[in-house]
C-alpha cells in the first residue's frame, strides 16, 4: 500500500532531528507519535501535492515499525481513493501537523508531559 521508501518534508525532518538531539527520542518514534496526534486532532490532508524530494527518508518498516498495519489501515480508511504515493504524502502531512506541538520540547520529561 505505502511505498517501501517514505519521505517527510525537509523542515519536518530537521524538526525530528532536533527533537532527537534534545530528548533522545528517535525520529521514527517521534514521527509515529506525531502521526497519531494529528489523526486524533481531526486534521485531514487536503490532497495538494507536497514536495518530499529533499526531506528525510527511511524504509517504511523503520518509520512505522510494528504500527505499519495500523497506520496503513487508518490512511486507507480516511483516504480510500488515494494512490500509494498520495498516501505517503498524507502520512507526511500528518507527521508535519503532529510534530508542531512537540517540536519545541527540550527535555525527555517535557516531551513526555506534552503527550
Q: What would you say this structure looks like, in words?
A:
This protein has helices at residues 10-23, 27-41, 60-64, 68-78, 84-99, 108-114; strands spanning 5-7, 57-59. It starts with a strand and ends with a helix. The mean pLDDT is 92. It has one domain: Orthogonal Bundle (Arc Repressor Mutant), CATH 1.10.1220.160. It is mainly alpha-helical and 115 residues long. The chain is built from six helices and two strands; from the N terminus they run βααβαααα. A two-stranded antiparallel sheet has the order 1-2. The radius of gyration is 13 Å and the shape is globular.
Structural class: mainly alpha
CATH class: Mainly Alpha
For CATH, the homologous superfamily is named as: DNA sulphur modification protein DndE
Please state the CA-atom Rg, rounded to the nearest Å. 13 Å
According to CATH, the fold-level topology is: Arc Repressor Mutant
Number of helices: 6
Binned, the helix content reads 55-70%
Low-pLDDT runs: none
Amino acid at each position: 500500500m505505502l511505498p517501501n521508501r517514505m519521505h517527510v518534508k525537509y523542515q519536518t525532518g530537521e524538526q525530528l532531528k532536533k527533537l532527537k538531539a534534545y530528548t533522545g527520542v528517535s525520529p521514527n518514534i517521534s514521527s509515529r507519535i506525531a502521526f497519531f496526534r494529528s489523526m486524533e486532532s481531526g486534521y485531514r490532508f487536503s490532497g495538494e501535492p507536497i514536495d518530499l524530494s529533499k526531506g528525510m527518508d527511511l524504509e517504511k518498516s523503520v518509520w512505522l515499525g510494528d504500527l505499519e498495519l495500523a497506520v496503513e489501515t487508518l490512511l486507507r480508511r480516511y483516504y480510500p481513493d488515494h494512490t500509494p504515493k498520495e498516501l505517503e504524502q498524507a502520512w507526511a502531512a500528518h507527521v508535519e501537523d503532529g510534530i508542531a506541538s512537540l517540536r519545541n520540547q527540550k527535555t525527555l520529561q517535557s516531551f513526555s508531559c506534552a503527550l
